[in-house]
Amino acid sequence: MLGTLSIPRAAVRWYGDEIVRGMLSWFWQALHGATAHVKWVSQFQLYIDYMLSGEEGPTNYDGWKPGRLTVHADLTAFSFLSRARWFSKVMRECLRHHGTKCMFQYCRPSSRAIFMHTRCAAVPWCDQRLALVDEWLLAHSRTGFHRTSKTLENLPLGSKDDRFERVFLTCA
């Protein structure tokens, strides 16, 4: 599925090297040697996986910035939905500029916690990683997330979970 990882200049021009390099390094590391079946994984699950890997998603407040450079990001009024949408947009653009084909669709993801249709990517994501993401989601809402629930908006920033590998940045 994945070719050689290189950092696309066009994406760097829009989002900056740190954001693009971090996101693509995480994506390649998560899918390198993947043996799982392709499944629909939601933008929310991918964003949470990224955070549990110890990364902070990009913010679009006065221009695109790495999350770590957004002062008091944990105290701002950025909803989880906004942060996930920013993450998803940058991820799709990074893949597009890289030339990596990834199918996206509005559908119900493979999840024990998300019971609604949302933007999903068709990827061979590790079942164990998805289970840990679902565990994190269910810790914040025992009943899961439905189309009409407002709990998704108020999810907190995630922090590094030791069950996820640290992201190693590519120097390509």
Characterization of the model:
With 172 residues, the chain is of the alpha+beta class. It has one domain. It has five helices and five strands. The protein has helices at 9-15, 17-31, 43-52, 80-98, 127-140; strands spanning 39-42, 59-60, 64-65, 104-107, 118-123. A hairpin with a 3-residue loop joins strand 2 and strand 3 (64-65). Helix 1 packs antiparallel against helix 4 and helix 2 (17-31) crosses helix 4. The longest helix is centred in the middle third of the chain and has 19 residues, at 80-98. It is globular and about 45 Å long. 35% of the residues are buried.
If you average the pLDDT, what whole number results? 92
Helix content: 25-40%
Largest sheet geometry = 3 strands, antiparallel
User: What is the beta-strand fraction?
Assistant: 5-15%
Series of H and E elements: HHEHEEHEEH
Low-confidence stretches: none
Strand arrangement within the widest β-sheet reads: 1-5-4
N- to C-terminal separation? 19 Å
Question: Looking at the structure, what is the overall shape?
Answer: globular
SS content category: alpha+beta
Instruction: Give a count of the beta strands, DSSP E runs of length 2 or more.
Output: 5
